[in-house]
């Protein structure tokens, strides 16, 4: 068996593909990390974001939701200047906004994971794509989740970002049918 082609020959991308991509996660902190990184990726390549992942983890204390919810504009500007993160201030401000929104969801649903996984009855969607070109950039479901998140004050959560996010946390398994990690 082979693997998906999109990771290419870069070890960091291959490791992400092999060990994380499309693997179901129910951990709010990891889910928040993936939401943050997918939002940071908007308009950029995933490999750029993965190379900066360690810096993001350091800057946001391993994506501690409560900590991130308490960051002020001065803190976020300092993160922008002192860490090797994407220097887009609105993307950095989205970390705080999304952490605050997650705290609200946790109060209402018990966890961010419960809120998200309920959309698919807690069962991953396993697609049967034969070619990577068949994988959509977004779906009706990612559009619906995007709209719902925006209503709850989330930022950088468009339908394409949310579809990538769904893959990142394993809500969707889009490994091609010949991939050994399927």
UniProtKB/TrEMBL annotation:
Signal peptide: none
Pfam families: Adenine_glyco (PF03352)
Name of the molecule in the record: DNA-3-methyladenine glycosylase I
Organism (species): Gracilibacillus caseinilyticus
Lineage: Bacteria, Bacillati, Bacillota, Bacilli, Bacillales
């Amino acid at each position: 068996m082979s693997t998906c082609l999109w990771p290419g020959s870069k070890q960091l991308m291959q490791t992400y593909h092999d060990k994380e991509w499309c693997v179901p996660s129910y951990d709010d902190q990891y889910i928040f990390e993936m939401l943050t990184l997918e939002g940071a990726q908007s308009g950029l390549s995933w490999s750029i974001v993965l190379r900066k992942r360690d810096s993001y983890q350091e800057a946001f204390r391993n994506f501690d939701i409560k900590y991130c919810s308490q960051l002020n504009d001065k803190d976020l500007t300092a993160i922008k200047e002192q860490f090797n993160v994407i220097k887009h201030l609105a993307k950095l401000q989205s970390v705080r906004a999304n952490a605050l929104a997650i705290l609200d969801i946790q109060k209402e649903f018990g966890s961010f994971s419960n809120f998200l996984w309920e959309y698919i009855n807690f069962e991953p969607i396993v697609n049967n794509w034969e070619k990577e070109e068949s994988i959509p950039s977004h779906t009706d479901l990612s559009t619906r989740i995007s709209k719902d998140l925006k209503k709850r004050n989330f930022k950088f959560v468009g339908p394409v970002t949310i579809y990538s996010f769904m893959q990142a946390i394993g809500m969707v398994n889009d490994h091609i049918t010949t991939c050994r990690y399927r």
